[in-house]
Amino acid sequence: MSASQGADATPRVSRRCESLGTENAFVVLAEVNALVREGRDIVSFCIGQPDFPTPRNIQEAAIAAIRGGKHGYTPSAGIDELREAVARDLGQRRGLDIRPEDVVVGAGAKPFIAYTIASVTDYGAGDEVIYPVPGFPIYESQIIANGAVPVPIFLRESRDFAFDPAELEAKITDKTRLLILNTPQNPTGGILGAADLDAIAEILAQHPQIWVYADEIYSRLVYTGAFDTLARRPGMQKRTIIADGASKTWAMTGWRVGYVANRALAPAFTRWITNTESCASQISQWAAVEAINGPQDSVVEMQARFAERRELIVRLLNAVPGVSCRSPGGAFYAWPNVTEACRLVGAADSEVLRKRLLHEAGIAVLADIHFGRRVPGDGQHIRLSYAASNHAIEEGVARLEAFVRRNMG
Fold first, then answer.
1. Within a 10 A sphere around the Cβ of 171, how many other Cβ atoms?
2. I want to staple 184 with a disulfide (CB 3.0 to 4.6 A). Which of 62, 88, 218, 257 is the partner?
3. For residues 327 and 319, what is the distance between their CA atoms, to the nearest angstrom?
4. Strand 382-385 to strand 366-367: parallel, antiparallel, or no bridges (unpaired)?
């Protein structure tokens, strides 16, 4: 290599960087936005965020914080007022004793996935993390990036997208360090019921080396019965990192406020934040205080609207040839089985179907492979976020039905 070539060369990046995954909802959203800029008419079901504005009282609290000079750094764990509000709210809704000092606030709930894995596994030691598939893609990405071993546990359609506790028991080894639970679940809308949580707790009681990361960001979006958590089971709270946040409940995705509660790991999480983001935005933290302590009318209204949309989208999807869709128990996602639809239109799999729906029908959805490997024996699925208006749901599913009927052999 000549000196000039060497001067122009770019140094290599690490294997860790190369292995880092992504969240395909944002990748597809960028593709959708590019098509829209070209003048295409796209009905998008790809992004998982409430389509409602942040409630006015929360906006006003942020404005008051700005005008009140709350512009600087905060303690890495968060302002005392927010930690107190979070501790009270999480504890009351779960029936748990949570102290403010157990709570750590971050710039969204997502960073705590990485902080947890890095805190309870050692890089390259063969430590294993069991995580749900299909599931939020950042779980697997961060397991690999942190040098741990990903061990998928499959959410099965026959169980309304819960996993079989017996399968969990079979996957635990002496190398298992962490179990990731997500209920209500992204992307399926599935819920772990009381019987499943009881069985999981009984299994974990035999394996005291295992921590649990309980991703409960959709805890306020349960449509039948009350929200339940593994942390309520005997001996589980001290081993469970309860993760929640403001994004889904109060339509505050862009405000970036998330939080976790765990007495033992709170100091470690605080150090991670000091080493990375320093602290969450002080303005957003004061807005979150108002979100939790203020009126909850908007939360109740959003829940009701999502429940109506769930009924609408499930009914419409089940009328499309080759599509079958179970009713999700929570969150705002439908996860229809499109195995037969793929066959009818000659699509090799759900990803081919997704691309054709986008370019031929003007509908943006995500394919099952965007959420991990396909569940053996469960066929093909796509995800539709029904954080969209009734009109958008009706128009989008009508386009899906027209596409299938037009392309049926």
1. 15
2. 218
3. 14
4. antiparallel
Indicate the pTM of the whole model. Answer: 0.94
Strands (E), 30-71: 43-44
Amino acid identity of residue 266, one-letter, is: A
CATH dotted code for 3-53+298-407: 3.90.1150.10
Q: In what order do the strands lie in the sheet with 333-334?
A: 333-334, 382-385, 366-367
CB 284 within 8 A of CB 316: no
Contact 104, 126 (CB under 8 A): no
DSSP string, 175-244: TEEEEEEESS-TTT-----HHHHHHHHHHHHT-TT-EEEEE-TTTT-BSSS----GGGSTTTGGGEEEEE
pLDDT tens digits, 28-75: 888 888 888 999 999 999 888 899 999 999 999 999 999 999 999 999
Report pLDDT for 21.
83
| Alpha-carbon distances of 297 from 58, 93, 227, rounded to whole Å | 12, 17, 19
pLDDT in tens, 361-392: 999 999 999 999 999 999 999 999 999 999 99
Parse the chain into domains and list their residue ranges.
3-53+298-407, 72-293
Residues 6+ apart with CB under 8 A from 166: none
| pLDDT confidence of residue 2 | 58
Site of tokens 């998008």:
44
Q: Helix, strand, coil shares of the chain as percentages rounded to 5?
A: 45, 15, 40
Q: Which fold has domain 72-293?
A: Aspartate Aminotransferase; domain 2 (3.40.640)
